[in-house]
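Re-run with default settings, no changes from the original entry. Doing this only to confirm the output is reproducible before filing.
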Amino acid sequence: MLSVPTLWTVFVVNFLALGLIWAYVMRSYPKFEAARFWTGSAFAAAAGAALASLRVVVDSLLPLLAGGTVLIFAACLAAMGIKRFYDREVTWRGTALITGLTFAGLSFFIFAYDSVPMRTLIYSVAQSLPLVLTLKLLLSRQDGRQNPGARLAGTVAILIVAIYALRVAGNLLHIGGDFSYIQFSPLQAALFLILMFLSMAWNFGFLLMAMDRLRNEVADLALLDDLTGVGNRRHLLQRLTEECARSERGGEPFALLVIDLDGFKRVNDTHGHAAGDACLQHFTLMAQTRLRPGDMLARTGGDEFCIVLPASTLREGAMIARRVLDVCREDAEACVGADIPIGVSIGVAQWSREIGPFPDRLIVAADHALYDAKNNGKNRYAVYDPAPPLAPGYDAAFKQALRKHA
């Protein structure tokens, strides 16, 4: 059977290693706030185990009191990290309350009335409480999916709580002997090793949660335009493909707006690229104020933008186009001095059965309408009408694009 010092040493070394890993994560991703709490939790657990192990060489229960209290504090820090991971507000009040009551309870049953079963009960309840309070977060679905690391951490938390319950029952019913930090029975040593393994697995669950979150953030960045913060062309095509497939299944149309900033090259040539970038950012902010929840604005390159309008008809698309035009016109009228007015031309098209699952067909149709708007004086919108050709060769190009996927 493993000796007590060996078990505590393994515990300390394992949690020091975890603390170093979390410290690296915290340093590499300073905005990932949960890592700060998980770093503190790992180092606190190592410190608590080191303090408790001093009971082997010191003829006093003070090391157990100090070590047990610090281990409870470590569990509370881990729970706070879970809450921050899910963007929940955290306060130190609950941590201070649990840690303080644990210290008071352990002190009473060490100095006022010596009772191993009661100390085990208090410590087990205090260790289990932070785990139980975060189970709902760990096992719930966020944005329609469950984080695999959270599922692992939640499952492990349930197992840890179950083992603490068995320990309490064993001590109160005197099954397996009194749990002592000086001498373990084979059963107690096995429980200690299982708890240590599960504690490590709990933290590995946190690591998987962090990896999943960071991977999703990187994926999101790959779909965003660096300058304006809205979707890029890749994101637009991904969304259009989804909407085309949804419309083809259910028959419900949706609309697309293709937008071009009028005279943008002249802005760059006259005022410089910094002014041009400022115009793009300003237009983005203005357009977003006229969109509905669920609408998607994307910058497809240069001064070109698209707006996807789910579950919308051509008439509703024209209404949104008019709103975007109005806000740009109002802003242009308010320009004074060195302010640069922004004018836009917009083409509006609606998904139809002929377009099917091919988003580039819808883009060609909206581009066709955009050409009409620019050909008729700019700073206006036009809707796609497939009947009359708008310019020699342009309607033929549209039909050729349709045939390509026919």
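The longest strand covers residues 255-261. Strands lie at 255-261, 296-301, 304-309, 344-350, 381-383.
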